[in-house]
Amino acid sequence: APADAGRRRPGAVELSWCQNSPHGYRDVLIRHNSFQRDTGISLDIAAGCVFEDVRIIGNLLRQPGSCDPRVTFAYNVWSSISAADRCSPTDRTAGGAFPYARAASGPGFDFHLAAHGAPDDLVPPTAGCPATDIDGQPRPAGGRCDAGADER
Question: For the whole model, what pTM was predicted?
Answer without folding.
Answer: 0.84
